[in-house]
Amino acid sequence: MTKPNDLLPEGLQDRLPAEAARITAAMRACLDVLGAHGYDRVRPPLLEFEAALVGRMAGVTVGETSAMFRFVDPASLRTLALRSDMTPQVGRIASTSLAAAPRPLRLAYCGDTVVIKASQLDPAREHLQLGAELIGADSVAAAGEVVMLAVEALKAAGLTGISVDFTLPDLVDTLAEKAFPLDAGQIEGVRRELDTKDAGGLKAAGGAAYLPLLYATGPFEGALAALRAVDAGGALETRLDALEQIAAHIGDAARITLDPTERHGFEYQSWLGFTLYADGLRRAAGRGGTYRIAGSDEAATGFTLYLDRLADAAPQPEAARVCYLPFGHDRSAAAALRAAGWRTRAQLADGEDARALGCGWTLEQGEPVAL
Amino acid sequence: MTKPNDLLPEGLQDRLPAEAARITAAMRACLDVLGAHGYDRVRPPLLEFEAALVGRMAGVTVGETSAMFRFVDPASLRTLALRSDMTPQVGRIASTSLAAAPRPLRLAYCGDTVVIKASQLDPAREHLQLGAELIGADSVAAAGEVVMLAVEALKAAGLTGISVDFTLPDLVDTLAEKAFPLDAGQIEGVRRELDTKDAGGLKAAGGAAYLPLLYATGPFEGALAALRAVDAGGALETRLDALEQIAAHIGDAARITLDPTERHGFEYQSWLGFTLYADGLRRAAGRGGTYRIAGSDEAATGFTLYLDRLADAAPQPEAARVCYLPFGHDRSAAAALRAAGWRTRAQLADGEDARALGCGWTLEQGEPVAL
Q: Which of B2, B3, B5 to probe the A interface (max A CBs under 10 A)?
């Protein structure tokens, strides 16, 4: 039955009932966790002026800001963009409409985002993004709250085997300034070779002193000890102490790993970045970190989950019992069943097959009778 | 603090916490009603190939199909459109992926839609659309179910004073064929004058016989009686009997009115259209009717609600109690409060003002103490 023009563009897809039910259940569970921890939801629009969105993404690489669909608005004759990320929108709201709200300001969001081009790692161009932003704080306490909140949200969505991978986005800058000096021209090369974990390249780039960082990775305690050994001069001491405090706050709620040189996707984070994983997911369930809001330069800490990805590993919500309602059924009995958590499907024509319509019961004399 | 590039494009807006909470509460309440009546949610993407979306909107006026933002997809080099309505997407899913699912097929949806140009009646260009489609049926029973479902959803969202205004989209065609003949060239003129309710224009357009229709409008019983008087030849009998049965099914759940010549917005409906109103709303809360799915020509009945509009009149959800969690608080006591429906906000820095952060209580020795 599928005709050519029924096909969807690459990276876009329909979510049919079973998958949509998983997404909806995961979304409600996560939003409820965010709400319970005092985060208030805001709803920014799908489209904004391109200049405003890009301006709010300062620090984000060109690759990210050029990831948006753009088009001219006949109403303003200005270029609009379809959001590829809601975080800059929440930053905008915090800096404008909610500029006068007391800090720390806790905001939550959930909505569709679209990128113009899929990445090698992820063929999807549409994502249902859900997240929380803690605005006015990027302290250890703030980071601990946000990481724990992300873990709790993933658990509420039914995910298991959750792990948090920490990174230190400004690690090279900090070490270059305080411990292992690099020329301005060398910094980018050293960052790149650390990113690709290429020991030979790292030496060639003048970063021999940074070699031990390549091995300070893996399960948290060992990697942290390795980092402390590298950090004889104490340049990283406050950061490493901070990681230790955050890890203590998480306790055994999640497995913790450390990959201090991982930069990908943390272009706008400041001292801390983290990636969230869970059993059954090939890609990250989400990510977060500390940053400064472009424009206002206010400190903030937040995370984003990709609900559509996450729903691949989330459990199927338990199906409610479905009762068929034949012609002339007792309408108040049907309403009572629905109020008690049943689903009903009413007869519309003669000769319907109630079982084929997904009904395991039928209403007879006001009572559900198994089919 | 608002800088020029923080302003949003015309017809697009942020929903701040109080409004976002009303929208979310209304959305959940409506979706729960749809789910309880056996409607399964599907999630189509924000973007589709323009040709596919327009092809699915056959019967819709040019004004509607040209209402979409369009842009070229670098991946396919084809034109994409940002959806302005989710109904054609649900029709597409029913005709393709779910073509083999038993009928009647009950589907629900909820998502953002955008039009390129605001209308005179509604300055918003973005709408959060929620609806239900009953696919494979456009009978009286189907219409009764769908109208009642819309009314129940509005009530669940907390709206009051709900009214349903019926119209008969193919009224002029039916009467022209069976009762008051018109030349092919006259039909459009008669429709237009009935639409503007211009008695003089109607006579001039050759539609003198249609004059009584202008007065068959208002509260259901009187308007129906007036229509029956016009319909001496019985051309409308089955339709009027159908309206009467639907009205009987609704009973006193909503006020019912009839405006048989209203066409605006019902360009793709077949024998029945309806508009939903509620106290406190300047514009319609939603609309629906019977139609045929473009492409497959399958009969269907459905409705759409505009959640963002509707939330203007929906009650503010009751605020949960918020408890401040000072440094070193009892974490399991805090978790127990959240599990019992409280919200918590944790201390992040010395000198915070718990009351300014919206907390009415603080946790002391594991117990909430009023501030």
A: B5
Q: Which of B51, B117, B320 is facing A74, going by the closest CB pair? A: B117
d(CA B14, CA A46): 10
Would an 8 Å CB–CB cutoff place A20 in contact with chain B? yes
CA–CA separation, B81 and B71 (whole Å): 7
Sort out which chain A residues have CB atoms less than 8 A from B73's CB and list them.
Answer: 9-10, 116
Residue of B nearest to A117 (CA): B75
Q: How far apart are CA B280 and CA B312, in angstroms?
A: 8
pLDDT of res. B57: 66
**Residue A76: CB atoms within 10 Å:** 12
Query: For position A73, what pLDDT does the model report?
Result: 94
Q: For A318-328, b where at least 16 C-beta lie within 10 A, e where not — what string?
A: eeeebbbbeee
Q: What is the 3-state secondary structure (H, E, C) of B277-297?
A: ECCCCCCCCEEEEEEECCCCC
A116 contacts chain B (CB < 8 A): yes
**Residues A118-150: pLDDT tens digits?**
988 889 999 999 999 999 999 999 999 999 999
Question: A345 and B145 in contact by Cβ < 8 A?
Answer: no
Q: Domain A10-158+277-318: give its CATH code.
A: 3.30.930.10
Residues shown for chain A: 371
Cα separation values, A306 from A55, B16, B78, Å: 24, 22, 27
Residue B325 near residue B365, CB atoms below 8 Å: no
- Write down the ipTM of this complex: 0.94
Closest Cβ–Cβ partner in B52, B345, B348 for A141: B348
The amino acid occupying position B349 is A
Residues 6 or more apart in contact with residue B61 via CB below 8 angstroms = B267
Residue type, position A209, single letter = A
CA distance B37 to A325: 10
Interface mutation vs chain B, best among A47, A110, A120, most B CBs within 10 Å: A47
Say if domain B9-160+263-318 classifies as CATH 3.30.930.10: yes
Q: What is the pLDDT of residue A105?
A: 98
